[in-house]
Amino acid sequence: xxxxxVQEEAFxxxxxxxxxxxSVAGAGAIVSFSGIxxxxxxxxxxxxEIEHYPGMTEKALARIRDEAMxxxxxxxxxxxxxxxxxxxxxxIMMVATAARHRADAFAGAEFxxxxxxxRAPFWKKEITGAGAEWVAARDEDExxxxxx
Length: 148
Description:
Blueprint: E1 4-7, H1 13-23, E2 29-36, E3 45-52, H2 56-72, E4 76-82, E5 84-86, E6 91-99, H3 102-118, E7 122-128, E8 131-134, H4 139-146
Parallel strand pairs: 1-4
Antiparallel strand pairs: 2-6, 3-5, 3-7, 4-6, 7-8
Helix pairs in contact: 2-3, 3-4
């Protein structure tokens, strides 16, 4: 299993978690988080387009994964993120962490999620019946990252 993947294809959250768990030895805790494409406030999201720079994105995600591994003493960590056109309810990303103790696994997963939300090199555009709009950074996402 590759610890960092950026792909256009949909993924099965259960299968990914099972594969991750099968690859981990000696951990006492596994934590996962899966994000899905949510509809916009008006409820008329047609599609979200996610762009990235191949090569650069994977390197950036690998660096933050390595930092989480070291910072929280993780025995394993995985990041999976999609790009391309996604509809409401489609799986968009997943992180999984494994550690001897649950607190480290939870902290590592939260750290990865906060990074993905605010610093990962992805650009998102929401397309609705009213037009297209790039998704702007949110203050609360920046605030969440500041705790690390």
